[in-house]
Amino acid sequence: MKLHEYQSKLIFSKYGIPIPKGRVAATAQEARHIAEELGGRIVIKSQVLVGGRGKAGGVKVAKDPQEAEQLATQILAMEIKGLPVRKVLVDEAAAIETEIYFAITNDRAAKKPVLMASSAGGVDIEEVAAKTPEQIVKVHIDPLLGLREYQARDVAASIDLPRDYWKEFIKIAAGLWNVYKETDAILAEINPLVITKDKRLVALDGKMMIDDNAMFRHADLAEMRDIDEEAPAETEARKYGLSYIKLDGNIGCMVNGAGLAMTSMDVIKLFGGEPANFLDIGGGAGAEKVAAAMRIILTDPHVKAVLFNIFGGITRCDEVARGILVAMDEVKPKVPMVVRLVGTNAEEGRKLLENANMITAETLADAAKKSVAAAQGK
Amino acid sequence: MSILVDKNTRLLVQGITGNEGLFHTTQMFAYGTNVVGGVTPGKGGEWVLDGKIPVFDSVKLAVDATEANASIIFVPARFAPDAMFEAADAGIPLIICITEGVAVQDMMRVRSYLDQKKVRLIGPNCPGLLTPGEAKVGIIPGDIAIPGNVGVVSRSGTLTYEVLYALKLVGMGASTCVGIGGDPVNGTNFLDVLEMFEHDPKTEKVVMIGEIGGTDEEKAAEYIASKMTKPVAGFIAGQTAPPGKRMGHAGAIIEGGAGTAADKIKALESAGVKVAKHPEEIPTLLK
């Protein structure tokens, strides 16, 4: 789960990381009030869960509350990479001297958390990583020991941070480690961490991603999920414990297992078709879940055929067949359906679907070819 | 001979009285796996499978009584990390964690601890191990594979079944099938298993099934190119997956342009691996 900048910075501040004064606003009038309270120069920042807000014109500086209101009106009317702006963060504008990149994330290759810092902060860090990787300092953290103070000090020295700031930097590093650890973050990023003209370290921008698998111990964070930022079908799918991602093609897919679901998409493409979605019903899915999955697939008007590829293991093919029948009865789909059932209780499953007017297939390649033909109306 | 599990495996089941634990214990027992006991805290002294398998309150007690040398975990995700620590502390040298959805920071702590203890972990979020005709330690349907000389290693569950089944249909069997799991932080990677297959006299050919995300396939390719003498065929899932999207709860995600299917296929092909266009093509590539 991604958090907005304003949410991330509120969490940072709870862990002792200094952030600019400011608040989030949903209307231009609110933005004006906040600007009046803050006084001085203001920065208005769109709150959408995509990168590149600045380049898209979603971050602007205002000299007074009146201009803050004007700019907030403009920004709240914007769409950034297809996402409408519903909130803006109104922050005091900082006088910046230096920008630092600072983050803790998971290094899946090392199987450890990694702290990353660079004095080339502010800009797109992926660009720095690609062009001048030597400018990024990386330190792995032992997950059982946590971040040690000497590691943070070494990082401060490696990015040529003036010694006057080391003590404060170490405090911020400890804070960021605690944020990462206690929120089960996948990413806790400050970009930029700035040195202001009046010699303070401030986290000007923040980004966090939380591990969905750890939500059971973070009820408070679960409430922060912004479902406005998700495709409605994806929210609906999560409710049923399904993994659904909409794509641009016209062949709907329902598969058990992420690897096999991706493979089914690949094989559709190999035989000249385009998958309309990724959908993994998971292991051991019952009839109700299968029915929900079919409803979700068919809400996409581009779907011209549906492929069911089920290799029963924990999942029982007869259960899946029952779900398909329930959903067919309820949704009355008008598009052709290709079904392939193999593995646990496949025979029973096939029998249940005998009179369901579906196209059957033996192998995955066969199923893909038939669904491509069906989508083309052949 | 085979790798990791065989007739001599003495298996413990953690979470044996749960729905999934009991169902799969029945299946494993019926296959002929030597299931020596189970653990469910609070149910020690009970028996399952009509009095054939004793239940203990802790892994320590179970090990003392049964001399188990492997443990399979079926407990829910939030309890799975503790189950892994418990098995390691009780001296179990091989842990197989089937559980899906374990938090990644938990897994980093588990992995770090188990590495120090030199405990081998398979999974989590994996279908487990199958040495056809000898032992089934996991949830791979037993009847989709026959004994043979092909070593199979895979990050995916049902995709593995697809490949085992395709091999069986042409009369090819497996020495051992290892499902290493699709999570970003797991216990055993491709490289570890390829090394084991290289040294296993029973394995003559290897199938490796990867997917997008991470760099484990690339590392495996380096090993294959420099050290491996046995032929390898492969498949990479996720060629059509868009970047930045998490394809399921698995670790399949392309991050920052790294870990694409195209990169992995290129790395494997330049290491001499025959990469299939679709999984059913694999048996042909092994001939």
Summarize the structure.
The complex is a heterodimer of chains A (378) and B (287). Chain A is α+β, with helices and mostly antiparallel strands and 378 residues long.
Per-chain topology:
The complex is a heterodimer of chains A (378) and B (287).
Chain A: E1 2-3, H1 5-14, E2 22-25, H2 28-38, E3 42-46, E4 59-62, H3 65-76, E5 79-80, E6 83-84, E7 88-92, E8 96-107, E9 112-118, H4 125-131, E10 136-140, H5 149-158, H6 166-182, E11 185-196, E12 201-203, E13 206-210, H7 219-222, H8 232-239, E14 243-246, E15 251-255, H9 258-270, E16 277-280, H10 287-298, E17 305-312, H11 317-331, E18 337-343, H12 346-352, E19 359-360, H13 364-375
Parallel strand pairs in A: 15-17, 17-18, 18-19
Antiparallel strand pairs in A: 1-13, 2-7, 3-4, 3-7, 5-6, 8-9, 8-11, 9-10, 11-12, 11-13, 14-16
Helix pairs in contact in A: 2-3, 5-6, 10-11, 11-12
Chain B: E1 11-14, H1 19-31, E2 35-39, E3 47-48, E4 53-56, H2 59-66, E5 70-73, H3 80-89, E6 94-97, H4 104-117, E7 120-122, E8 128-131, E9 135-138, E10 147-154, H5 158-169, E11 174-179, H6 190-199, E12 205-211, H7 216-226, E13 232-237, H8 261-270, E14 274-275, H9 282-286
Parallel strand pairs in B: 1-2, 1-5, 2-4, 5-6, 6-7, 10-11, 10-12, 12-13, 13-14
Antiparallel strand pairs in B: 3-4, 8-9, 8-11
Helix pairs in contact in B: 3-4, 6-7, 7-8
Overall description:
The complex is a heterodimer of chains A (378) and B (287). With 378 residues, chain A is α+β, with helices and mostly antiparallel strands. Chain A folds into 3 domains: 21-92, Dna Ligase, domain 1 (2-Layer Sandwich), CATH 3.30.1490.20; 96-222, ATP-grasp fold, B domain (D-amino Acid Aminotransferase, Chain A, domain 1); 231-375, Rossmann fold, CATH 3.40.50.261. Chain A is 37% helix and 26% strand. In chain A, strands 1, 8, 9, 10, 11, 12 and 13 form a 7-stranded antiparallel beta sheet that branches. In chain A, a hairpin with a 2-residue loop joins strand 5 (79-80) and strand 6. In chain A, helix 2 (28-38) packs antiparallel against helix 3, helix 10 (287-298) crosses helix 11 and helix 11 (317-331) packs parallel to helix 12 (346-352). The longest helix of chain A has 17 residues, at 166-182. The radius of gyration of chain A is 25 Å and the shape is elongated. Chain B has 287 residues and is of the alpha/beta class. Chain B has 2 domains: 11-122, NAD(P)-binding Rossmann-like Domain (Rossmann fold, 3-Layer(aba) Sandwich), CATH 3.40.50.720; 140-286, Succinyl-CoA synthetase domains (Rossmann fold, 3-Layer(aba) Sandwich), CATH 3.40.50. Chain B contains 9 helices and 14 strands. Chain B has helices spanning 19-31, 59-66, 80-89, 104-117, 158-169, 190-199, 216-226, 261-270, 282-286; strands at residues 11-14, 35-39, 47-48, 53-56, 70-73, 94-97, 120-122, 128-131, 135-138, 147-154, 174-179, 205-211, 232-237, 274-275. In chain B, strand 6 (94-97), helix 4 (104-117) and strand 7 form a beta-alpha-beta unit. In chain B, helix 3 runs parallel beside helix 4, helix 6 (190-199) runs parallel beside helix 7 (216-226) and helix 7 (216-226) packs parallel to helix 8. The radius of gyration of chain B is 18 Å and the shape is globular. Chains A and B meet through helix 9 and helix 13 of A and helix 4 and helix 5 of B.
